[in-house]
């Protein structure tokens, strides 16, 4: 089942270009998701993402139980993950950037030096430092002084 989900996953337009530009600039890139690690981690590895946090599915005797193991990646965990990534790379929080689209991203966006709402719900767009309507993630590059 997970392999099928991974195979059918469609990246947001501009995601690969954004990640490549960030890496060229020497920036570490993290992916923090309320989705499942079994889907997110292979994707992150294929994109060269440096840091991943996601929910881990419980598997018993090769069968998914419908439960997660370990801490749930919620809004507080997303903010904590940004703090952890910044600390790992010696980056002050006021020099970090976070991109999100939902209410569970608000705390992370508030903690970041620059919180970007991308193709986001209205509440998130209102509370973020800047809102980018989409459809392509690489539209945030000029905000970061990159191309």
Oligomer: single chain
The residue fraction in helices comes out at: 25-40%
Structural classification: alpha/beta
Order of helices and strands: HHEHEEHEHEHE
- Shape call: globular
Give the termini distance in whole angstroms: 38 Å
CATH architecture: 3-Layer(aba) Sandwich
- Relative strand content: 15-25%
**Rounded to an integer, what's the Rg over CA atoms?**
15 Å
CATH homologous superfamily grouping? HAD superfamily/HAD-like
Q: Give me the side-by-side strand order of the main sheet.
A: 1-2-3
Biggest beta sheet summary: 3 strands, mixed
Number of domains: 1
Question: How would you describe the overall organization of this protein?
Answer:
The protein has 147 residues and is of the alpha/beta class. The chain has a single domain, classed as HAD superfamily/HAD-like (Rossmann fold), CATH 3.40.50. It is built from six helices and six strands, in the order ααβαββαβαβαβ. It has helices spanning 2-8, 15-24, 37-47, 75-88, 106-111, 122-127, and strands at residues 30-36, 51-60, 63-69, 97-100, 114-118, 130-132. Helix 3 links the parallel strand 1 (30-36) and strand 2. The termini are far apart. The model has no long low-confidence stretch (mean pLDDT 96).
């Amino acid at each position: 089942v997970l392999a099928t989900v991974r195979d059918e996953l469609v990246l947001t337009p501009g995601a690969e270009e954004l990640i490549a530009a960030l890496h060229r600039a020497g920036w570490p890139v993290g992916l923090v998701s309320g989705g499942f690690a079994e889907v997110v981690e292979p994707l992150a590895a294929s994109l060269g993402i440096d840091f991943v946090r996601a929910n881990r599915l419980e598997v018993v005797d090769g069968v998914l139980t419908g439960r997660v193991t370990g801490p749930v990646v919620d809004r507080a965990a997303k903010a904590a993950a940004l703090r952890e990534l910044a600390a790992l790379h010696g980056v002050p929080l006021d020099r970090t950037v976070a991109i999100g689209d939902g209410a569970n991203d608000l705390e992370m966006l508030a903690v970041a030096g620059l919180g970007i709402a991308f193709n986001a719900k209205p509440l998130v767009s209102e509370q973020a430092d800047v809102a980018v309507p989409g459809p392509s993630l690489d539209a945030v590059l000029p905000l970061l002084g990159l191309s």
